[in-house]
Design goal:
This protein is mainly beta. It is 12% helix and 40% strand.
Length: 144
């Protein structure tokens, strides 16, 4: 009996442990016009952190095909988030803009923007991440 108990405890320690407060958010990035470059994702938890890069969780994924790319954002705590996404076409790790700040590279958010002529508000692009495997979709766009 002691051997069976020991084996059971040993087996439980080998199995991967999952955190009940976090999971994987699946981000589907659509409208990729080029099969190269890198997708950069800034994940903002809560309104107070929105568009503050110092407060963002940053992730990236190489692009190797046109069309749609699925990215798993692992170990993300459940809660409210807003995502800002851009396709870095020239490998400089930043969203290129013109002289007045208009993006020159494809970009998107966790939900479609209400207006291209201002930054989105947190409430407009907020998602509620509730369970592992939840999927959201973002379609990249250019300003012009």
């Amino acid at each position: 009996m002691q051997i069976a108990f020991f084996l059971l405890i040993s087996w439980m320690n080998i199995l991967p442990q999952s955190d009940a407060n976090s999971g994987t958010l699946v981000l589907e990035v659509n409208n990729l016009q080029q099969a190269d470059g890198t997708i950069y994702i800034a994940i903002y938890k809560g309104k107070e952190n929105f568009l503050n890069e110092d407060k963002a969780i940053l992730r990236s994924q190489k692009v190797n095909k046109k069309g749609t790319l699925e990215i798993n954002l692992d170990n993300l705590e459940y809660g409210d988030y807003a995502l800002a996404i851009f396709h870095d076409l020239n490998a400089n790790k930043e969203l290129d803009t013109n002289l007045v700040g208009i993006p020159k590279e494809p970009f998107g958010f966790s939900k479609p923007m209400v207006s291209k002529f201002r930054e989105p508000r947190y409430e407009e692009v907020r998602i509620d991440f509730k369970k592992s495997g939840q999927k959201i979709s973002s379609s990249l766009q250019t300003f012009w």
